[in-house]
Design a protein that fits this description.
Elements: E1 13-15, E2 24-33, E3 42-44, E4 49-53, E5 60-61, E6 72-77, E7 80-85, E8 92-94, E9 97-99, E10 101-104, E11 109-112, E12 115-126, E13 135-136, E14 139-140, H1 144-156, E15 163-166, H2 173-183, E16 191-195, H3 201-209, H4 226-229, E17 234-238, H5 248-257, E18 259-260, E19 270-271, E20 275-280, H6 284-289, H7 295-301, E21 304-307, H8 318-326, H9 336-344, H10 350-361, H11 372-375, H12 398-420, H13 425-432, H14 436-445
Parallel strand pairs: 4-5, 15-20, 15-21, 16-17, 17-20
Antiparallel strand pairs: 1-2, 2-3, 2-12, 4-6, 6-7, 7-10, 8-9, 8-11, 11-12, 13-14, 18-19
Helix pairs in contact: 8-10
């Protein structure tokens, strides 16, 4: 068996989560032989078309009596792979079903006569030169990870491939989606934002697909959904990790087919043409492995994946962000105590929290008599309310070192928990599987709440 060669076409780019920080990776697609002689041999799909058959002029030559001279062709259509049978003698099958033409998805088994090939993807690390600019749209940063993101977003903005943004709450996923839209050929079309976490499960299907009058109780008028409103532009699906499992296949089908039906509609499906950008505060690959997110939808959304770093991992950007938010050179004019506090804080709310803190801190420039401690008390949480805890140490008595590690873990865990739940303690208690009173006591222990009423 032989294959043709050509330039690699990256199909799935990752920054941060499953690649190293400051590194990128692209996902290459392969057909891997799973039976007959040569089991495990891989045939990369590196061009827009890949012809498979027994004849020597095919890209992949399979010398088997059950394979036709020109058996099938795989055509790459953007971020999809279309398999077409070329009137072969023994047929082409995908996961046991005979096809004449069908789209191939990662993990599926492609059969040519008695020969079986698995369609797989592999992640290959690659470096990308950081942008020389320190901002892209509303995104601001001079750190290497952020400038790598700027370079990547500029490169992929001209494509129509789906994009998955991953990052903690407040890390700038919305700003990244807006930058992609503004740089794309669809910039003159609408940018429609849909927050999957802000709509109840009973209404989310109507919000996405729309509904006809009388489709359900309370549907007194026709409603145009987000997919329809985003036609010709970009649809930003925020907090996609909160989308209910039973709705995920409906969204996948709409994205795959580029058409949908409003709820209660008896007419033909409605075609839509929009770029899909999704955002998640969780690692969706880990969610798929835990059974909380559909793997097929994950692969469909993550043609490109960008992980936005939390602010605590790029504190060199704080001064630049402060000046950008204020519209002036404010950072150098802030009192040293405030600057030190900003640099020492963990920023569980990330860039969004910094923006809010700045609204209060900037007034110190004109009112120096104000106490920086009281002014920024809600952001000064490095010293816990219950006492001065020392950082974790690996020198000294075992018990003291262990207690230091436990305190360090608890504070970091609680800080991230509150960030994910957006300060909702009841929601945080459910996620952590803790009694609410016990969670409150832990939050007070580390100075993460000020009163039981919060």
């Amino acid at each position: 068996m032989t294959t043709g060669t050509s330039a690699t076409i990256p199909a799935h780019t990752v920054l941060g989560l499953r690649a190293q920080t400051e590194r990128l990776g692209f996902q290459e697609f392969h057909l891997v032989l799973v039976n007959t002689d040569g089991v495990g041999k891989s045939f990369p799909i590196t061009d827009s078309t890949l012809k498979i058959g027994k004849a020597s002029d095919n890209d992949v030559v399979i010398d088997s009596p059950t394979v036709s001279r020109n058996h099938l062709v795989i055509q790459r259509q953007g971020d999809r792979f279309l398999v077409q049978d070329l009137q072969s003698t023994n047929g082409t099958f995908i996961d046991g079903a005979q096809i004449r033409e069908a789209y191939l998805k990662p993990g599926q088994l492609l059969e040519l006569g008695d020969v079986q090939l698995r369609f797989q993807s592999t992640l290959t690390p690659v470096r990308i030169a950081p942008s020389v600019e320190d901002r892209l749209g509303e995104l601001v940063g001079k750190s290497v990870p952020m400038r790598q993101i700027f370079a990547l977003l500029k490169r992929i903005s001209s494509t129509d491939s789906t994009l998955l943004l991953v990052g903690e709450t407040g890390s700038g996923k919305g700003a990244a989606a807006k930058a992609i839209h503004q740089l794309s050929p669809r910039r003159d079309g609408p940018l429609v934002v849909f927050d999957c976490a802000a709509v109840s499960d009973s209404l989310i299907e109507s919000e996405l697909f729309g509904h006809e009058k009388g489709a359900f109780t309370g549907a007194v008028n026709q409603r145009i959904g987000c997919l329809e409103r985003a036609h010709g532009g970009t649809l930003f699906l925020d907090e996609i990790d909160d989308l209910a499992l039973d709705l995920q296949p409906k969204l996948l089908r709409a994205i795959e087919d580029r058409e949908f039906r409003r709820l209660g509609a008896s007419s033909s499906p409605i075609a839509f043409d929009s770029r899909i950008v999704a955002a998640s505060k969780k690692d969706l690959w880990a969610e798929t492995q835990a059974g909380r997110f559909r793997e097929d939808l994950y692969f469909r959304l993550s043609v490109f994946t960008v992980s936005l770093p939390p602010l605590r991992d790029r504190k060199e950007d704080i001064a630049l962000l402060v000046d950008a938010f204020s519209g002036e050179a404010l950072w150098d004019r802030l009192p040293a105590a405030v600057r030190d506090q900003f640099m020492a804080h963990a920023w569980p709310g990330n860039v969004r929290e910094l923006r809010n803190a700045l609204e209060r801190a900037r007034h110190m420039v004109d009112i120096p008599e104000l106490s920086s401690g009281s002014l920024l008390r809600e952001f000064a949480r490095d010293a816990p309310a219950g006492g001065d805890f020392l950082p974790a140490s690996y020198g000294g008595p075992f018990k003291e070192c262990k207690e230091g590690l436990v305190r360090q873990f608890e504070r970091e865990y609680l800080t991230r928990l509150l960030a994910r739940s957006k300060g909702n303690v009841a929601k945080a208690a459910r996620e952590a599987e803790l009694d609410r009173k016990h969670l409150y006591s832990l939050l007070h222990k580390y100075g993460l709440v000020q009163s039981d009423s919060e």
